[in-house]
Amino acid sequence: DVEVRSVLKVLADFTGVNLVASDAVQGKVTLRLHEVPWEQALDLVLRSKGLGRRQEGNVLLVAPLAELAGHDTQARAAQAPPTLVRELLTVSHARAGDIVQLFQAMVEDDDPGAITVDERTNTIIASQPSARLADLRRLLAQLDVPVRQVMIEARIVEAN
């Protein structure tokens, strides 16, 4: 039986990782590990005591899962949602639906904002944060180019 804090200290010393343990990290654990990667050993110890870890810069924070979830919730609540800007983007040469599909593949599902297509006018209607709207404008400028055409010239010569 070894204190969890002692195991964490040994792992941190062995790997050279900066590790901070919450005051709620306590208890004993029994373990015997042979040729186990340090991250797997850390995860096993944490899981056995209902703990989790979060990387913040070059520091590894260890705390109970509920405490980590509380920090994440507070951090999300502290961040104000970005202001959305609505803009109509006219597409001249490409299909607006194709541009929107490419753009949506680049953003995450939980990102704020909406983007729709008016097929009749081939226009993109975007309500996005200003930075993402700039990305969409750049993508549109790169992809909305005319298709190259081949000119066929013929001369008819009539000889008698």
Description:
The longest helix has 14 residues, at 65-78. With 160 residues, this protein is of the alpha+beta class. The model has no long low-confidence stretch (mean pLDDT 86). A hairpin with a 4-residue loop joins strand 7 (114-118) and strand 8. The strands form three sheets. A three-stranded mixed sheet has the order 2-5-4. A three-stranded antiparallel sheet has the order 6-8-7. The chain contains five helices and eight strands. InterPro entries: NolW-like (IPR005644), NolW-like_sf (IPR038591), Secretin/TonB_short_N (IPR011662), Type_IV_pilus_biogenesis (IPR051808).
Based on the model shown, name its key terms.
160 residues, Phage tail protein beta-alpha-beta fold, Ribosomal Protein S8, Chain: A, domain 1, 3-stranded mixed β-sheet, 3-stranded antiparallel β-sheet, NolW-like_sf
| Weakly predicted, low-confidence segments | none
Radius of gyration: 29 Å
- Mean pLDDT figure: 86
Percentage of helical residues? 25-40%
Number of strands: 8
* Largest beta-sheet characterization: 3 strands, mixed
Total helical elements: 5
Walk across the major sheet and give the strand order. 2-5-4
Strand content: 15-25%
Examine the coordinates and then state which fold CATH places here, giving the name of the CATH topology of the largest domain.
Phage tail protein beta-alpha-beta fold
In the CATH scheme, the class of the largest domain would be: Alpha Beta
Q: What structural category characterises the helix and strand content?
A: alpha+beta
The figure for the number of domains is 2
N- and C-termini, Cα separation? 111 Å
Shape: elongated
**What is the architecture of the largest domain at the second tier of CATH?**
3-Layer(bab) Sandwich
Could you give the order of the helices and strands?
EHEEHEEHEHEEH
Pfam family, one: STN
Domain Secretin/TonB short N-terminal: 17-65
InterPro entries: NolW-like, NolW-like_sf, Secretin/TonB_short_N, Type_IV_pilus_biogenesis
Protein name: STN domain-containing protein
